[in-house]
Amino acid sequence: MATCRAAVITAHEKPLEIWDVNIPDLDPGSVLVKMVASTLCGTDVHRWHGPLPKNDTLPIITGHEPCGVVEEVSGEKNDILGNPIRKGDRVIWSYVACGSCYYCSIAVQPCICRGRASWGHNRCDQHPYLLGSVSEYMYVPKECLIIKVPDQVSSASAAASACAYRTVMHGYDRLGAIKDHETVVIQGSGPLGNFAAAVAKDHGAKKVLVIGAPAHRLEVSKRMGADDVLNLETTPDPVDRREWVLSHTEGRGADIVMQIANNAAVPEGLTMLRDGGQFLDIGAGGKGQIPVERMPQQMTYLTVRSGEPRHWLQAVDFLASRAERYPFDDMISRAYNLEQVNEAMNAMANFEVVKPVINF
Ligand SMILES: [Zn+2]
Ligand SMILES: [Zn+2]
Question: What's the pLDDT tens digit per position in 166-225?
Fold first, then answer.
């Protein structure tokens, strides 16, 4: 059986190893993709540090944000828009929900399907082996919906659309239309926060305010559409940060607050929201306690998990159609090759980089 090289987590906290992993025969309708870029995400670091959720065991190929070029298609296959997939197409692809459980078939909420397939946590010594993105090849199961990447979108940004940016698009889907009198506060100036700033501005928000750190990331926020930014490091008191939001909103608070940082930011974010506003909670990790008795009156609290296939498409469409307007590639912080995967993972774990890319 042919093999390819991949970055494998063999033990928690131990350096990843470059293994030769089997390239499987293709089942009908499946696709083999030669990887071009894989961005890394905080989740990859969590899985490396462990413990894994129950049912997951090592060894696993790390990474779940892939972009690559079609190497082989088993049979005839179309992309999400109905166009034929051919060898050489640059693509990203969705996760797979089971289609038949309560969440899929009755609630029509496939992102919380209990039988959902996703990448970066599957054993690489069992068929179909190649379900992690820091690998020379990936196997695309037949149920995945495939999105072709337009020329205007870099492979790194396309890879980030396979997790980070599509989650933001899912959040906007849940919020509904932004009205042109509305002010949006975004907590977090990482790639998701800055991407969300661009979408908020583009969708017609009157004012987009980003709260984050450090200063160089807030400079990116401004280029990504933020009307004003607040540096957490130079404004350490949450009372002052709330005052800043109130000063921008005639004392009411923001119409929409998006938490795209960490759960610990939620209680503060709620103090910045006007009565009747919408709170969108995206950032995972950390802990926060909500004082229920002090929540804004008539507010709406929204959370998201992952995305539906259309959100992968929306993210890539946004990157392509607004490529002239926003410097999307400024959000990808540093490039590495496969052999440098440990450097990249350590840099993420130490918060030196936010969104590194492994290029193949
Ligand atoms: Zn991710
Ligand atoms: Zn399901």
Answer: 999 999 999 999 999 999 999 999 999 999 999 999 999 999 999 999 998 999 999 999
If you measure from the C-alpha of residue 38 to the centroid of ligand 1, how many angstroms do you get, rounded to a whole number? 11
> Which CA distances in Å does 105 have to 99, 100, 113, 117, 240?
6, 5, 9, 16, 47
Tell me the whole-structure pTM to 2 decimals.
Answer: 0.96
Q: Where in the chain is the domain with CATH 3.90.180.10?
A: 3-154+332-359
Crossing angle (nearest 10°) for helices 215-223 and 191-202 = 30
Residue 55, number of CB atoms within 10 A of its CB: 6
Q: How far is the CA of 132 from the centre of ligand 2 (A)?
A: 21
Ligand at shortest distance from the CA of 39: 1
CB 1 within 8 A of CB 23: yes
CA 63–ligand 2 middle distance (angstroms):
23
Distant-in-sequence, close-in-space partners of 55: CB < 8 Å, separation ≥ 6 = none
- Phi, psi (degrees; rounded to nearest 5) at 354: -105, -50
DSSP state of 124: T
Neighbours of ion ligand 2 (CB under 5 A): 97-98, 101, 104, 113
Looking at domain 3-154+332-359, its CATH architecture is: Alpha-Beta Complex (3.90)
Distance separating alpha carbons of residues 157 and 86, to the nearest angstrom: 22
Strand 3-9 with 60-61, pairing: antiparallel
Ligand 1: distance of its center to the CA of 201 in Å? 24
Instruction: Enter the tokens of residue 21.
Output: 């992993």
Stretch 120-124: mean pLDDT, rounded? Answer: 96
Say which residues have a Cβ less than 8 Å from residue 199's Cβ, sequence separation at least 6.
Answer: 168, 169, 172, 318
The two tokens of residue 141 are: 């199961």
The length of the chain in residues reads 360
Supply the CATH classification number for the domain 174-303: 3.40.50.720
Domain with CATH 3.40.50.720 in the chain: 174-303
